[in-house]
Design a protein that fits this description.
Elements: H1 12-19, H2 31-39, H3 44-54, H4 62-65, H5 68-77, H6 82-102, H7 105-113, H8 124-130, H9 132-147
Helix pairs in contact: 1-6, 3-6, 6-7, 6-9, 8-9
């Protein structure tokens, strides 16, 4: 995604920060390092962090990302599967972009949790969780807001 194309730039360092990966973990701040980190299993704490950032008053939100029984199993090994990490990174990437666009966590939350007409009045967070394609639709809306087209 390149800003010159009206798309939001992908920032591996920002994504690593949202996921709560240690700043000293330099490898997680490069695109391939981050991809490797996700593939090898993000720490369960990354799920806790992202869930708290997006829905600070909702202790159940993390179960929308990973079912409760699976979460309990993952706590024992302290790692998410590659697929779970990919889903979490997708949500974290959109969150980071929403905060960048709105310059405020509360307004970013409001955008993500309020139905939007450009996605058939579905909540952006729901379509982001559902699929990568849904996340790209939300990224397009956010890029339009950031780079000047109506959304």
């Amino acid at each position: 995604m390149f800003p010159s194309e009206g798309r939001a730039a992908f920032e591996p360092g920002l994504l690593a920060d949202v996921l709560g990966l240690p700043a000293k973990e330099v490898a997680a701040r490069s695109p391939f390092g981050l991809m490797s980190r996700i593939e090898n299993g993000l720490p369960i704490g990354a799920l806790e962090r992202v869930a708290h950032l997006l829905a600070p008053g909702d202790a159940q939100f993390k179960y929308r990302l990973i079912p409760k029984a699976t979460y309990e199993r993952r706590k024992a090994v302290h790692r998410l599967s590659s697929d779970e990490g990919t889903r979490l990174a997708r949500v974290a990437r959109v969150w980071g972009l929403a905060v960048d666009v709105w310059q405020n966590e509360e307004e970013a939350r409001d955008f993500l949790f309020r139905p939007h007409p450009m996605i058939e009045d579905k909540r952006p967070i729901d379509v982001v969780i559902l699929s990568e394609f849904g996340a790209e639709m939300v990224v397009d809306i956010l890029a339009g807001l950031k780079y000047g087209s109506a959304a």
